[in-house]
């Protein structure tokens, strides 16, 4: 965990797991039972012209997988809802709000947008400069922007929703497993 130039330090719930290779810097709030994977970077260090910075908030039971980057322009807020999965190497760049029970696929990019509750954004997709209502499904490699006709975007299927829930559940189990390993390592070190 790192302090930003303004002096803000992350606030991380005791039940969360942050991989030792991850970087969590500045005004970041990580709620309970969150998994932050190897080489993830969550960096809240920029301020606006008045010196203000909103936090980056990672909601309870969410997972930020390997190589994900979460950052924000000029101190704008980034909020990740509860039970949300941000998959490997995705970029979430604020201002950005991601609802609960959302799945963001590998290498996807979110910028200056809102992604509503229960959405699925598949791999290598881009959501830029628009508000995606709850329950929408963005296919792989699609680009959704301010001129996109949202009527042309499908709704999340039961199968896609089940997949999202399974990813969240699997990563919640990883948190518990890694926390047990941490606890075991501390107990072993204290006996030496």
TrEMBL record:
CDD domains to which the protein is assigned, alphabetical: LbH_gamma_CA (cd00710)
Signal sequence coordinates: none
Pfam families linked: Hexapep
Gene3D superfamilies on file: Hexapeptide repeat proteins
UniProt xrefs under PANTHER family: CARBON DIOXIDE CONCENTRATING MECHANISM PROTEIN CCMM, CARBOXYSOME ASSEMBLY PROTEIN CCMM
Family stated for the protein in its record: Belongs to the gamma-class carbonic anhydrase family.
Protein name: Carbonate dehydratase
Lineage of the organism: Bacteria, Pseudomonadati, Pseudomonadota, Betaproteobacteria, Burkholderiales
């Amino acid at each position: 965990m790192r302090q930003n130039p303004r002096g803000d330090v992350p606030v991380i719930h005791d039940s969360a797991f942050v991989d030792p290779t991850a970087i969590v810097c500045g005004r970041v709030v990580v709620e309970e039972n969150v998994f932050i994977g190897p080489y993830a970077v969550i960096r809240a260090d920029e301020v606006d012209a008045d010196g203000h910075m909103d936090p980056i908030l990672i909601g309870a039971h969410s997972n930020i997988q390997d190589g994900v980057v979460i950052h924000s322009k000029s101190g704008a807020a980034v909020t990740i809802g509860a039970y949300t999965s941000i998959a490997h190497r995705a970029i979430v760049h604020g201002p950005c709000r991601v609802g609960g029970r959302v799945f963001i696929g590998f290498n996807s990019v979110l910028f200056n947008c809102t992604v509503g509750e229960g959405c699925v954004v598949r791999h290598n997709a881009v959501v830029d400069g628009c508000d995606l209502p709850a329950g929408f499904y963005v296919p792989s490699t699609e680009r959704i922007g301010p001129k996109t006709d949202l009527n042309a975007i499908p709704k999340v299927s039961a199968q896609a929703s089940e997949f999202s829930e399974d990813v969240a559940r699997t990563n919640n189990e990883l948190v518990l497993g890694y926390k047990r390993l941490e606890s075991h390592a501390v107990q072993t070190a204290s006996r030496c």
